[in-house]
Amino acid sequence: MNKLKGLYLITDNKLTPDSSILYQVEEALKGGARIIQLRDKEKTDDELEKTAYLLKELISKYNALFIINDRVELAKKINADGVHIGDGDYTLKQTREILKDKIIGVSCYGDINKGLEAEKNGASYVAFGAVFSSMIKKNAKVIGVDILKEAKRKIKIPICAIGGINSDNISNIDSNVDMKAIISAIWGDEVKDKAKYLSSFC
Fold first, then answer.
1. Catalytic residue at 39?
2. pLDDT in the model for residue 135
3. Which of 9, 20, 51 shows the shortest CA–CA distance to 199?
4. 107 is known as an active-site residue
5. What residues does each domain of the chain span?
6. Does pTM surpass 0.85?
7. Pairing verdict, β 125-128 and 6-10
8. Residues 5, 39, 180, 194: which is the catalytic one?
9. At 37, phi and psi to the nearest 5?
């Protein structure tokens, strides 16, 4: 649990394609990323398995955490550090039965009560967003930064902020928020330098 802190980066099948994902993730880790989530909404588990194994091996060298989005069975198969689930995925109870003592993150969108329920039912951390308008999820409801402060007051497990966070607005998020998750604002060119800058606010 004490490792659930810092810059939390999420891959994207377009921004981090197979040809560059390992290079980009390593640059991010060199820059100070502490958690990497593999997120791919298109490939099958079998198609992702090799990449997941390689990422796990790489990320462990930097003593960082490797989380897989949605794919509970894949996370179990490759022994990832944990999984992140949202609405429509396995329930938290089902996920905990499969992954035992692994990290389980739960998307709570803008719902504090959902976060409190997840905490009660054994979540390792909860995520709130979209904090700002997001290029990845353009239809996501923007919840703003104040809800993060409320979440920190009411919820004891670590809190992750997500959605539209970039180098221009990350300083607007309360420093007490445990993790700040970023997708589009990190990948591409100068990943290491961007990660260093963003990590300074985490």
1. yes
2. 72
3. 9
4. yes
5. 6-199
6. yes
7. unpaired
8. 39
9. -110, 125
Positions in the chain short of pLDDT 50: none
Catalytic residue among 102, 107, 134, 180: 107
- Alpha carbon 49 to its chain centroid, in Å, reads 19
Beta-bridge partner residues of 104 = 83
Q: Residue 183: what residue type? A: I
Q: 7 pairs with which residues across the strands?
A: 180
b or e along 70-87 (b: 16 or more beta carbons within 10 Å of the residue's beta carbon)?
bbbebbbebebbbbbbee
Check residue 104 and give its pLDDT. Answer: 98
CATH class of 6-199: alpha beta
* pLDDT given at position 134: 77
What is the pLDDT, as a whole number, of residue 1?
Answer: 59
* Distance between CA atoms of residues 194 and 170, nearest Å: 12
Alpha-helical runs (H) found in 83-124: 92-99, 112-120
Selecting among 30, 137, 149, 196, the annotated active-site residue is: 137
The DSSP output letter for 110 is: T
